[in-house]
Specification:
The structure is a single chain. The protein is α+β, with helices and mostly antiparallel strands and 489 residues long. It has nine helices and 27 strands. The strands form six sheets. Strands 1, 18, 19, 20, 21, 22 and 23 form a seven-stranded mixed sheet that branches. The longest helix has 17 residues. The radius of gyration is 44 Å and the shape is rod-shaped.
Amino acid sequence: MSRSAPAFAMPCLLLAGACSHSVDTPAPPKVESAPDFPLQTSTIVVPISASLDDVQRALDHKLSRRLWSIDKKFDQCVAAKRVDLGIAKVKVLPNIGCHILGEVTRGPLRLGGKGDRLIITIPVHARITAKNVGGIASKTATGDAIVRAVARLSLRGNWSPVAKVTIDYDWTKAPGIDFLGRRIEFASKADARLKPVIADLERSLPREIDKLDLRTHLAAAWKQGFTAIMLNRDRPPAWMRVTPKRLSFGGYRIDRRRLILTLGADALTETFVGDRPADPVTTSLPPPAPATGKSGLNFFIPVLADYAQLEPVVRRALLKRADKGITLAGIGPVDVKFGKVTVYATTGGHLAVGVTAEAKAKNSSLLATKGEVWLTAVPYNVVNSQLVRVRDVAIATNTDSQITNVLIALFKDGSIRDSIAQGLSHDFAPDYKKVLGSARKAIGARREGDFLLSADVTRVENGTLAVTGKGLFLPVRAAGHATIAYRPR
């Protein structure tokens, strides 16, 4: 019997070895990469407005009430009259000279218009006296005209305004006198003097608009545009860095009593997670570029599920499964104690999940194992869904002791892997709503110096999940409209 004892003792020694066996599967490599968000190009509409009342008041003050005056003698106010006697024309009345005194004055200037037509309206009154007509009489004539100037504005390369003004006016009552059955018209003389006066509006109007000091204000706004805007304060801290690239002139329009010059500001927007990024390098104000016709604001908002948030959820799912009892094929019922759970990003878009546990077969006190087992899983979602699930939960590295290792058998059990998958599932919807609300608030009404940015997010969509070193990231793309208004304090 003594010779055969070692043969009988061998299985017991193996079982005793299993009882004290400790398993530690190698941990997968850890990935530390941050999320990568692409550059977005945004065009922000920039209306610069001025009160028509202010421009009107300035023009009215600048333009003289007396447009021109005349004090001149003419040898021929009334042409000679001839009678045709058949064989010859005989002069019966000579050329009649006169002395003309008069002036043309204007009434209040009015600015108005609609769309891209700026209309300047000026009432004109003429009073002309022809003295000593033929050396025997004096007569006074009056006349009235309405002058309309239609202006179209544009900008030079240095952002100074220039106006193209077309003039149109009609005499509602042309100045003239009747003498000896003849009509003496003075409208042509008034026209010659009115044209250069009205044409001066083509020079005066841009000068008055230029008093808005558009270039100085735009240069200040351009400089202030190189900045970073906080989209979310925490979980995760997120920033949108803005880098202006060009300014375009999209024309102007008259809206009620406002003259509005519409500009387009093209900028790059970048999303950063973590600390506030450095402001981009400021460049000088570029010359106005042609309008592109595009508009809109585009940026990304990252929604984060930190791995530390997932670890206790996975552990609770495993504990809940253990409370129901676990039976392993080929081993039978087992008692399991789950300990620490560790989750982080590993290669290939996978999650690494480490679980410490103790497993002991109820039918044999010798079948027991403890240690840490590492698994991998693939998280996924569909576009525009905030619900994240996992698939392909598997042990990261097989060992050479699977047959006798209760712990390895435990984590190969489908119900255990399902519990891990359930714990790793995450609904981003509450975080999504919170982060989006923070971003709307951050960019909704923002003052930079004398300019006020107003933005309205009109479209939101989320892409597919990204596994990064910082956590599970759901990239959310937001789009909308934005305006920048000049609002000096």
